[in-house]
Amino acid sequence: MLQLLLSIPAAAVAIFLASFAFSSVAERERRAAFVSAILLAIFLAIWLWAESQWRVGHWTPLLVTSLASLCAALVFFVPFPSRRALQTVPGNGSSVTRVDERDVIFSRADLVEGSPEYEEYYQRRPEFKDVDRSLQSVSEMGVPEQEMYSPLVSPLTSSASRILKRNIELVDGPVSEKRTKLGAETATRLVKLAASRLGAEAVGIAPLAPECVYSHVGRGPEPHGSQIHLSYPWVVCFAVPMDYDVVRGAPSPWNTIETHSCYAQVSRIGVVLAAWLRALGYAARAHVPGSNYQVMLPPLAALSGLGEMGRIGVMVSRSFGPRVRLGAVTTELALVPDAPTRSGIEEFCATCLKCAVNCPAGAIPTSEPQETRGVVKWTISAERCYKYWCKLGNDCGICLRVCPFSKPDTLVHDVIRHSVKASPLGRRVAIAADDLFYGKRPVPMLLPSLKEI
Ligand code: SF4
Ligand code: SF4
């Protein structure tokens, strides 16, 4: 009986290693499958030897194996209070300067030399003129001069991007005069259900932090430079994950097409949700891909509990990592907010440098988070990143591919995510294990469908 009890922790470790090996085979992660199989073999050999020693009266090896397995489980999964509390999202009444959307790299890249907007902007911000000139010479992604141009696949990107522009006129509209009365709790349940049924994988609600509203329009549909007055009290944020199988082939034109495909889904969810709320008698505006954002989505998504701001400069979700595309609807309909979550992502990013080490443009900082406009966060060099996109002809996505949180949302990865959330040691081990199982510089995978073309 005692022998059986002592074998339980060791059996749990063996089952986890075996599950990890099987799931790595299913995910076609050859290196992870090989390493986990070796570790499983070593562990089984030690355990079986300890069992054999027990049978001849030497109880120490089995006791040590069992205690070591039990300690591992306790150290990795017993919750420790989080020691880090970065202020990576604005709000909480702090006086943060609002961002002018005209300063965002995509708005600057759209400026046409000689236009009144161009002249006005560089008179005010001459420091960007030189760096922006090279970006403005590239009209769009997927043109023949770019490194990864494919005459067959690249035109799909520009076609998809043109479709997104069509939804812009639907982001706002007239509100029904007949208002349907809804309590905040019922409305919250309904809104979340509707967003999920429309295709969102995660939905969260937050008070609309004024600091997350852009001060001036940088990209349509309103005139360039017009002031933004967005006084809705609530924001509904939602996320659509990118397919992991496509992301792990990044950079490739297929990754950009996946980005646009998710954008199309986000756009559809946003405009339908906003139109529905207006039909119920509540003002609502969608903020979806296609150059019509009036709010900064990543910090709002973090405030609404969808994830945490990571080193990578965007929101990292617990289940999908940074490989999510975000949308939002701001509304006057009273809702019940979600609380920001703490899944150990900020703490993980503080030690993990994988995205920064693998970024070919050197755009992701390796330093500690810095204070920017009153919030403490990691800020990437948007100029370097966008310049690299222009060189390639697609949206790169290497940082999304290598981030450990991007792994599929399966049981084994979920066990590891739980350990990352619960324990500082779990985070340390997960960072080292990610390098061991997947490599410090994981190579992109060729998509299975592409092998057949
Ligand atoms: S998309 Fe590519 S260039 Fe941009 S930050 Fe990520 S890895 Fe670097
Ligand atoms: S790769 Fe590492 S440091 Fe970068 S966002 Fe992901 S977890 Fe954070």
Could you provide a short overview of the structure?
The chain is of the alpha+beta class. It folds into 2 domains: 1-78; 101-402, no CATH class. Helices cover 48% and strands 8% of the residues.
The helix/strand order is HHHHHHHHEEHHEHEEEHHEEHHHHH
Number of strands: 8
Residue share in helices? 40-55%
Largest sheet, in brief, is: 4 strands, antiparallel
Bound molecules: iron/sulfur cluster
How do the strands of the widest beta sheet line up side by side?
1-2-6-3
Number of domains: 2
Characterization of the model:
With 453 residues, this protein is α+β, with helices and mostly antiparallel strands. It has two domains: 1-78; 101-402, no CATH class. 48% of the residues lie in helices and 8% in strands. The chain contains 18 helices and eight strands. It has helices at 2-26, 30-55, 60-77, 105-110, 116-124, 129-136, 154-166, 184-198, 244-247, 253-279, 297-303, 345-351, 354-358, 382-392, 398-402, 411-422, 424-438, 448-451; strands at residues 202-207, 234-241, 284-287, 308-309, 315-316, 324-331, 370-372, 375-377. A four-stranded antiparallel sheet has the order 1-2-6-3, with helices on both faces. A two-stranded antiparallel ribbon has the order 4-5. Strand 7 and strand 8 (375-377) form a beta hairpin. The longest helix is centred in the middle third of the chain and has 27 residues, at 253-279. The termini are far apart. The structure holds iron/sulfur cluster (2 copies). The site of one iron/sulfur cluster (SF4) has 15 residues, from helix 12 and helix 13. One iron/sulfur cluster binds next to helix 14 and helix 15.
